[in-house]
Structure formats: structure tokens, C-alpha cells
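EI: anyone free to look at a 138-residue chain?
SC: sure, send it
EI:
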Amino acid sequence: MKTTRLLLVSALSLGLFAASCSSDDNEGETIVPIQGKYNLRQTGTIIDGKEVLIDAPANQSGCSMDYLDLRLSNTAVIGDYDGEDCALTETTGTYVRSHNDLTITVGNISSVSDIMNLTNKELKIKDKTTGVITVYSR
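SC: here you go
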């Protein structure tokens, strides 16, 4: 009787373990929500198989960092600080996330990027056309 119970418990445990592993696979897709305001930190590319990033030259010295604001309404707002007075120019468009692709459309121009990393603190994307890597922080 004791052996039967032990076998039954072992079989149930194994079944639960196998079922939980196979159906929860997200195929490498991150499950962190993408909505949020991200400050532009770095840009770069891949050279000889290595990622090379530099501080974002688009950020105006002495001003706040440029940003990308992805809102729940699928609105994308790109903020650019420029000039001696750090004047803010905001450009509004839309965005769509499909698995690990992020498409941002402003006017008639769309850019599609791979989401390389998305955490509670960072968004790293790579433009599929140009190969440019952009790193944002929350």
C-alpha cells in the first residue's frame, strides 16, 4: 500500500512538472510590458560580431535626455531637447509590438526593430534595416 501511494505521488509530480514546462514556453519573448517612458542612453552597432555602444550623440549637452514614451493607447511620443535653451520638440506617432518586433510609425515613415532586451529598467532595440542599436533606460 505504501509503495502504491509513493508511485502515485511520484507519477503526479512528474506529470505536473512535464505539463508546466511544455505549455509555458514563451519562445524567447519577454513578458515585461513595453509601455513606459524611456530615456535615450546609448547608440551603436555590431562590429566584427561585438556590440559597440557609445553615449547617444543625439542628447544635447546640458539638457535632459531625449526620450521615447510608449503609451497604453499605442501612441509613441519622441522627445528631443535641442539648442542652448533646451527647447523640447515632441513628435507623435504610433507603435505596434508583435512578439519581439517593435514598429514605430511617424507620419508615412515606419521603422521596425528587434527588441533585444526589455526589462523594468532597460529597452534595447536594433533597427532591422540599418542595424543601429539604441539603448533606453526607464
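EI: Confidence is low (pLDDT under 50) at residues 6-26.
SC: 👍
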